[in-house]
Amino acid sequence: MKITTATTALAATAGVLLGTDGAAAANARFCSSQSDICYSEFNAEGLKNMNVVYRIATPQAAQAAPYDITFQIVASRNMGWAALSWGGTMVGHPLTVAWPNGNSVTVTSRMAKWVLAFLSPAIGHTYPNVYSGATYTILPDTGVNGTHWTLSAICHGCSQWSTGSKKSISPYSTSVQLAYAMNSNQGVVTTPSNPASQFTYHDVFNYFRIDYNAARDPNVEVSS
User: Residue limits of the Cellobiose dehydrogenase-like cytochrome domain (predicted)?
Assistant: First the structure.
């Protein structure tokens, strides 16, 4: 299946370019028999022997951000929710959060902000509220089976965003830092059918790197 969107090649002329430093990421390669898309993947270790696999595919024709990113999140069926930070940290970057909802999967975009605790030197962050700057096209291989759930989608707004300053990820970057989080318990999402639902905080989080240049695939085209 070929994914087709309007093709553009807009250069990022201002702001912050993310993910351009460090050694090349060493990622496994996964090719979907359902979509003919090949992804770079990372296997994130969770609790209770439940892991989450994150897969990224970028448009072969992309020259600069913004461009769409095709991705998958594959989690054990009993995983409460799993999330991906496109900027490598939780605060100030788009967060993709997904969870099972019966035989389907719900996805939402969130963003957290820094806050200074009142009368305290401690700095924390807000609960990740709904963020409208990243949207999704859900692909047919999204679903739930007897062992795991899969979100397969195209993200519009995950290669470039602005939170006061413009932030971009080059499609040529060989080492993009991303971050993941998850909650390995069931019943941690208040209303699973609602993308704006509240959910319990993570019990695991960490960082990883993806080679966006190696993740290029001719079956993924550049966005508007």
Answer: 30-219
Percentage of the chain surpassing pLDDT 70?
A: 83
Q: Quick one: which of 53, 41, 136 has its CA closest to 96?
A: 136
Question: What is the 8-class DSSP label of residue 104?
Answer: E
| pLDDT 10s digits, 100-123 | 999 999 999 999 986 655 544 444
The amino acid occupying position 193 is S
Residue type, 138: I
In this structure, are residues 47 and 203 in contact, taking their beta carbons and an 8 Å threshold?
A: yes
Query: Per residue in 158-205, pLDDT tens?
Result: 999 998 889 999 999 999 999 999 999 999 999 999 999 999 999 999
* Residues 218, 58: Cα–Cα separation, whole Å: 9
Can you give the pTM of this predicted structure?
Answer: 0.85
Residue 34 CA to residue 39 CA, distance in Å, equals 13
Tokens of 189: 């999402």
β 28-31/176-183 pair status: unpaired
- List the chain domain ranges: 22-217
Pairing of strands 104-111, 95-101: antiparallel
CATH 1.10.3810.10 corresponds to the domain 22-217: no
Taking the CA atoms of the chain, what radius of gyration do you get in angstroms?
17
Residue type, 104: S
